[in-house]
Structure formats: structure tokens, C-alpha cells
Design a protein that fits this description.
Blueprint: E1 12-14, E2 17-26, H1 34-44, E3 48-52, H2 60-70, E4 74-78, E5 86-89, E6 94-102, E7 113-121, E8 124-132, H3 137-152, E9 159-164, H4 172-180, E10 182-183, H5 184-187, E11 206-210, E12 215-220, H6 228-233, E13 240-247
Parallel strand pairs: 2-3, 8-9
Antiparallel strand pairs: 1-2, 2-13, 3-5, 4-5, 6-7, 7-8, 9-11, 10-11, 12-13
Helix pairs in contact: 3-4
Length: 249
């Protein structure tokens, strides 16, 4: 398989499987350097982008459309209708269905949700979920259970979930996800580990997970692909990029 800049495998359609790139990225409602944000996403050449803190409220669809156009991607779903998470995809993906899921609202806390989809890429059928979990520990733990239940109910053999977990790997919710799914960084570390903050990376609170049967080829912060200045100014998180091989349906 081709390994371009930084050694991460490129997307490819293979016999009986599909090699794909998945990017998870908290974009802080596009309140920072949007040109840098677009350059980071394009440099990663993703097939699927799992966004957190997508534009919401006033004219949010227009802002999301601008981001999709600037990155040569299309909007799968999410945004304000999922309370922030959003999904983008390349034209490699054939969309089977999408669903925005709102989670129970805890009084006094922000509404949370999932953006979900089932897509086909090169013969592989893939469930996809983007999440931005609560700042409150007990609610966050409940949301990890809801995430696992949602993946299990998608009716697919292979699924990918990613997002801003607001928790480090030693946290109870993070451990719950890593116990049921493959933590892609732990399986095949590549690039950088820490995702917060861009000016002082010191903690991993963003991650991509995959179900059993998905081969993790590499995962981490794309330090060798995106320009360092763009990574610092695009938003207040660093992105996570994973190269995965998904068996055909």
C-alpha cells in the first residue's frame, strides 16, 4: 500500500477490503482561522471527518457548507440538529442512511448528541459516529454507554466512533470505550499523541475507536502532514487522523 508523507497509508480500494482515512476534529464552531482549518483537513486527505463543535445557531448550515466546499468534502449530517457533532465525507462514500441523535438533557448542562451514518466505501459497509462528551463526569460516563449502545444498534459489522471525550485515557468513560472497542492510537500509534492544547500539547482527550475486525494501520495527530502554524491557529484542539482497513461487506 502507498505510504505518502509521514508514512501513513493512503486511501485505497483493495480486493475484499477498503483502506480509508478518518479524521476527528473539534473545530470550535469555526471561530478561529478558517483558512488554516481547511488546509489542515485537506492535508489529511480524509474519507470521513468526525467533527465536534460544528457551527450552530444563526446560519449554521451556511458555515458548514463553506467548510465542506473549502475542503472538497460533502456534509453527511449533524451540526445543530445533533447539538454540535457533524459528519463530512469524500465522494468515495456512498451514503446508506444518516441519523442525528440527541441525548438526555441534564438541567444546567449543555445538550449533547451524536451524528451518525452508515456508508459504503469500496465494498466496505461502515457505521460512523461523532461525539462530544460532557464535561461532567457522571453524565459523560452515561454517554459512553449510550455511544456503545448506538454502535451496537446500527446493524453493521464494522463501525468507527470518534470525538472529543473531555477525558484522558485513565478516565472511567475513556476506559469503558477502550474496553469495548479498539483505541486506534493504542493499537498503532503514529504522529503525535496529545490533542490539547495546540500551543502546549499535554493531554489526549480526543480519540478514534474502531470495532473488532477493522485493522488499524496508524493513528495520531498528523504532525507530519499539516503545517505546524495551521495546527496552532485552526482551532483549540489538535485533530486525530486514523488509517484503517475495513473488510468488505
Amino acid at each position: 500500500m502507498t505510504t505518502p508523507d509521514g508514512g501513513l497509508p493512503a486511501s485505497a480500494t483493495e480486493s475484499g477490503s477498503a483502506a480509508i482515512r478518518v479524521l476527528s476534529y473539534n473545530i470550535r464552531s469555526m471561530r478561529d482561522d478558517n483558512a488554516a482549518l481547511a488546509r489542515v483537513i485537506r492535508a489529511c486527505a480524509p474519507d470521513l471527518v468526525l467533527i465536534q463543535e460544528a457551527p450552530r445557531f444563526f446560519r449554521w448550515r451556511k458555515a458548514a457548507a463553506r467548510l465542506a466546499a473549502a475542503t472538497d468534502l460533502v456534509i453527511l449530517g449533524g451540526g445543530d440538529t445533533a447539538a454540535g457533532p457533524m459528519l463530512l465525507c469524500s465522494l468515495r462514500a456512498t451514503v446508506e442512511r444518516t441519523e442525528d441523535v440527541l441525548l438526555p438533557l441534564t438541567p444546567g448542562l449543555h445538550r449533547r448528541g451524536f451524528a451518525t451514518a452508515v456508508v459504503r466505501i469500496g465494498g466496505a459497509r461502515i457505521g460512523v459516529l461523532s461525539a462530544h462528551l460532557s464535561l461532567q463526569e457522571a453524565e459523560r460516563y452515561e454517554q459512553t454507554g449510550a455511544l456503545l449502545d448506538r454502535l451496537a444498534g446500527m446493524g453493521v459489522d464494522h463501525a468507527i466512533a470518534g470525538g472529543d471525550l473531555n477525558e484522558r485515557p485513565d478516565g472511567r468513560g475513556f476506559r469503558r470505550l477502550a474496553g469495548a472497542l479498539q483505541d486506534c492510537w493504542e493499537v498503532a500509534p503514529w504522529g503525535g499523541e496529545f490533542t490539547s492544547t495546540p500551543d502546549d500539547p499535554h493531554q489526549r482527550i480526543d480519540a478514534i475507536f474502531a470495532t473488532a475486525g477493522v485493522e488499524v494501520l496508524g493513528c495520531g495527530v498528523p504532525l507530519g502532514l499539516a503545517a505546524p502554524a495551521d495546527l496552532r491557529t485552526a482551532t483549540d484542539h489538535l485533530p486525530v487522523l486514523a488509517a484503517l482497513r475495513v473488510p468488505g461487506a
